[in-house]
Amino acid sequence: MAVSFVRPLLRKILPLNLGDEMGHACFRLTLVSAFSLYLVLAYFTGHISEFRNAAFGVAAFFSFAFVWIGVVHLSLLTFRSRRVLSIMLDQAVFAFAAYHAGEVMAPVMWGPVLMAIGNGLRNGPRFAKLSSLMGALCTGTALWFSPNWNLVPLVCEGIIASILILPWYTVVLAEQVEQAKRAMQARAAIFESASRTDSLTELLNRSGFFLALQNALDQVRGKGTRSAVMLIDLDGFKAVNDACGHAAGDEALREVALRLRSCFRSSDKIARIGGDEFGIVLSDVSNNDSVERLAQKAIESVAEVCIPGRPDLRLGASIGICALSREGGCGDCRSVMDVADRLMYQAKRAGKNQFRIASAYAGQRTAAVAHA
Questions:
Q1: What's the rounded Cα separation, in Å, for the pair 370 and 92?
Q2: Are strands 227-235 and 269-274 parallel, antiparallel or unpaired?
Q3: Confidence of residue 366 (pLDDT cuts 50, 70, 90)
Q4: Which domains are seen in the chain, by residue range?
Q5: What pTM did the predictor assign?
Q6: What is the pLDDT of residue 23?
Q7: How far apart are CA 227 and CA 350, in angstroms?
Q8: DSSP tag of 102
Q9: What CA–CA distance (Å, rounded) separates 99 from 97?
Q10: Tens of pLDDT, residues 67-103
Q11: How many CB atoms lie within 10 A of CB 304?
Q12: Are the beta carbons of 209 and 273 closer than 8 angstroms?
């Protein structure tokens, strides 16, 4: 029993883990042991004259520190109960020691402040405030009734004020720093999103598209999922720009973006990667048939875009699709886009409003599929 108690104690002391409940209990014992050693040395060197009352007060805190290690080791009470009880006993026993030891405790009168701040960092602001209030109450009572401390009332008032002010100041400052950090992270996320978003269509831009593509390739290689990349080039868009102007062209691009959003899942990444060219990263696809159905749906949806005042102008879509799978090969971003680009031009040369699909690995390319 003694061995099982001592081993975890030594592991916690060397080195001390102040964020751990047992580490904190051992730290308390280490501090009071160090102060006890100081007390003995100070007495024998004549630095202090009164030893008996001081030893009695420090022994009380030493006993509490030692007993509390046993409480934590045996997991007596619930964790929350131990936290609250340790806060109250820390401050109460320290005040008892300060009452009996008198001015001998002056070198460690920062103890209640340390306890309150430590409780705040380990357990949260509420525990820091509880410890601070308990410390001010207990230590203030001890100093008020102590004949030694009554000789220096202004010092006592300063000690009590520090027990109240310093932990609360630390808690408020920590909360404000954390709030500022969260606000900065939120702004950084907004800026990062803006840097990867196309301002005209509010889809991903080229940078965002290639990041999504790289993530899809990593998933294919790491988890063996199936993905696909579509490269869409609008047919007839130049005629819209030439006949109606760039404002009409921009409106047509926004309409295409809306229609593409309606064709694909929220998990699919849709991007305008330049001019009238769109890219789509499809994640977790079941098979090529489902990809082909989505491509056909996209072609039909783009064909429904109307140019105001010009019923003679229609848009179409030529699509190149690169299927990604672990067994079919997936290559890198550049090779995937090369395959999709080549297939897209094949569809365009074949008469437009069509798609072609193949795997990324040339040696295992699937048969091209065309739809009018």
A1: 83
A2: unpaired
A3: very low
A4: 2-184 (no CATH), 206-364 (3.30.70.270)
A5: 0.59
A6: 87
A7: 25
A8: G
A9: 5
A10: 999 999 999 999 999 999 999 999 999 999 999 888 8
A11: 10
A12: yes
Please give the single-letter amino acid code of residue 160. I
Helices (H), 196-225: 206-223
Cα 156 versus chain centre, distance: 44
- How far lies 144's CA from each of 147, 151, 255, in Å? 8, 10, 78
Instruction: Enumerate long-range contacts of 204-211, CB under 8 Å, 24 or more apart.
Output: 204/269, 204/270, 204/271, 204/272, 205/271, 205/272, 205/273, 206/271, 206/273, 206/274, 208/269, 208/271, 209/269, 209/271, 209/273, 209/279, 209/281, 210/333
CB 76 within 8 A of CB 108: no
Q: Which of 110, 27, 105 is nearest to 68 (CA)?
A: 27
Amino acid letter, residue 323: A
The residue among 145, 96, 87 whose CA lies nearest residue 115 is 87
Helix (H, G, I), strand (E, B) or coil at 233: strand
Active site residues: 276
Beta-bridge partner residues of 220: none
- pLDDT at residue 13 in the model: 47
